[in-house]
């Protein structure tokens, strides 16, 4: 148990559906992240939030919409997805985003949501 | 372009047979290099952070080392429970980007 929970653990949706992924961290961290993990590919960083403010958006299609209402919760709203969006979506948190030699950037991951788009 | 390459892609070891996993990286200024372990159906589990060349860290049968171009994860006398995918990631000094490798899938046979 890493202190980062994600729901649902599995999700099957059609291309016209709207759904949301939820992440909650109980570690007192200030930074939260969404990653996409596809088979045989490296983890792809999608979004970064620090103190509820989005600091990174790595050219993610607008059909993925993040929301961070506070430092403990992170959502990923999904709409009109494509089959190639099927993947494991991972949430992570860290103390913060710091320069230099600091454990602030060490990320702790949730178990992920396995998303299948039909 | 910042990137991370891990080798080998897969490794099978007999229990007790020591070996090393490699992580080669190119980044415009290294803020940190991270090692994670990922079991099937789970998220990555944090293992180590290394910050500068020459640094080493140990945890049980694992030892991570860092040079200016690569990191090694040495596994001494592995046990079947060490079977997992080991991921390497780097964070550069520009922005808040983290770059992951594709991982090494380790299988330790009893």
Walk me through the topology.
The complex is a heterodimer of chains A (118) and B (110).
Chain A: E1 4-7, E2 10-13, E3 18-25, E4 31-37, E5 44-50, E6 53-57, E7 64-70, E8 73-79, E9 87-94, E10 108-109, E11 113-117
Parallel strand pairs in A: 2-11
Antiparallel strand pairs in A: 1-3, 3-8, 4-5, 4-9, 5-6, 7-8, 9-10, 9-11
Chain B: E1 3-7, E2 10-14, E3 19-26, E4 30-38, E5 45-50, E6 56-59, E7 62-66, E8 70-75, E9 84-92, E10 98-100, E11 104-109
Parallel strand pairs in B: 2-11
Antiparallel strand pairs in B: 1-3, 3-8, 4-5, 4-9, 6-7, 7-8, 9-10, 9-11
Poorly predicted tracts of residues of chain B: none
Oligomer: heterodimer
Span between termini of chain B: 41 Å
What integer value in Å does the Rg of chain A equal? 14 Å
Write down the secondary-structure element order of chain A: EEEEEEEEEEE
Mean pLDDT of chain B: 94
Helix amount of chain A? under 10%
Number of helices of chain A: 0
Tell the overall outline of chain A: globular
The CA-CA distance between the termini of chain A, in Å, is 31 Å
Q: Which regions of chain A are unreliable across 5 or more consecutive residues at pLDDT < 50?
A: none
Shape of chain B: globular
Pair of chains with the largest interface and how many residues each contributes: A-B, 28 and 27 residues
Largest sheet, strands/sense/barrel of chain B: 6 strands, mixed
Fraction of residues in H or I helices of chain B: under 10%
Q: Give the percentage of residues in beta strands of chain B.
A: over 45%
Mean of all residue-level pLDDT scores of chain A: 92
Estimated structural class of chain B: mainly beta
């Amino acid at each position: 148990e890493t202190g980062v929970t994600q729901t649902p653990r599995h999700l099957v949706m059609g291309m016209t559906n709207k759904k949301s992924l939820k992440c909650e961290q109980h570690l007192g961290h200030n930074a939260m992240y969404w990653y996409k993990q596809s088979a045989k590919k490296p983890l792809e960083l999608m979004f970064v939030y620090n103190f509820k403010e989005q600091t990174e958006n790595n050219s993610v299609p607008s059909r993925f919409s993040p929301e961070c209402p506070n430092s403990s919760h992170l959502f990923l709203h999904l709409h009109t997805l494509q089959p190639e969006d099927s993947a494991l979506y991972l949430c992570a948190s860290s103390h913060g985003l710091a320069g230099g030699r600091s454990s602030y950037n060490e990320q702790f991951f949730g178990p992920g949501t396995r998303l299948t788009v039909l | 372009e910042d990137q991370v390459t891990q080798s080998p892609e897969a490794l099978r070891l007999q229990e007790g047979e020591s070996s090393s996993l490699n992580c080669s990286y190119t980044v415009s200024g290294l803020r940190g290099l991270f090692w994670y372990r990922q079991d099937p159906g789970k998220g990555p589990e944090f293992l180590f952070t290394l910050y500068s060349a020459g640094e080493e860290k140990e945890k049980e049968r694992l030892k991570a080392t860092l040079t200016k171009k690569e990191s090694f994860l040495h596994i001494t006398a592995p046990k079947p429970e060490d079977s997992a995918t080991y991921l390497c990631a780097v964070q550069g000094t520009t922005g808040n980007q983290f770059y992951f490798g594709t991982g090494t899938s380790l299988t330790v046979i009893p």
